[in-house]
Amino acid sequence: MRYEVRIASSSSGEKTRVIELERNASGWRVTLDGRPVAVDAAEIAPNTLSILLDGQSFEISVTPSPDGKLKLQTGTREFTAEVIDPRAWSGRRHGIVEAEGRQQVIAPMPGKVVRLLVKAGEHVQAGQGLLVVEAMKMQNEIRSPKSGTVERVLAKEGQPVNAGEILAWVN
C-alpha cells in the first residue's frame, strides 16, 4: 500500500514523503521515498510507539487531532503528520501521480472479494477500479496504481482475502 504523508515541524518546515508498505513473510517491507528502510514498530502503551528505524530507536507519542492530523512527539521534537488521501492524488501536480513499472495490487484489509471489475489483458487507467472488497459490511473499490494492462487477476468473486494478499498485477 502506498501512502503520501505531509510532515511539518517548526524547525524543518513541511515535507511530503511517499511511504510504501508491503507485507512479506517476516513482517513488512518499507520503502521511504523509493529507498528501502529497516523498520520495526511496537505499541508499548496506548498512543505510544517504540520504533527501530535503520538501527536507531525512537519512542513516539501519537495524539490524534480533530482535523484528522496526528501530532507526533519524540524527545523534545514535535511534528504534525497528515496522510494525504490517495484518491485525491490524481488531481494534483500537473496530472496523475502514478506508480511506474510492474505493480502488484494488494488487499489493504481482510475481507471478501464481491466483484471483479476487470479481466486479465484489459487496459486500465491509473485510479480505475479493478475489484471490490467487502470488509466490515463496507464495500471498498481497489483501484489501479498506474495506467497499463492487467497482467493477472489472482482473486475470484466470493474469495476471502487477507490484508497484504496480492489480488492482481498491472504492467
Structure write-up:
With 171 residues, this protein is mainly β. It contains no helices and 17 strands. The strands form three sheets. It has a nine-stranded antiparallel β-sheet, with no helix packed on it. The two termini are 17 Å apart.
The 3D shape can be described as elongated
Strand order of the largest sheet: 4-3-2-1-9-8-7-6-5
One letter per element, helices H and strands E, the order comes to EEEEEEEEEEEEEEEEE
Mean pLDDT: 83
Largest sheet: 9 strands, antiparallel
Tally the beta strands: 17
Low-confidence stretches: 89-97
How much of the sequence lies in strands comes to over 45%
Q: Gyration radius, to the nearest Å?
A: 18 Å
Structural class: mainly beta
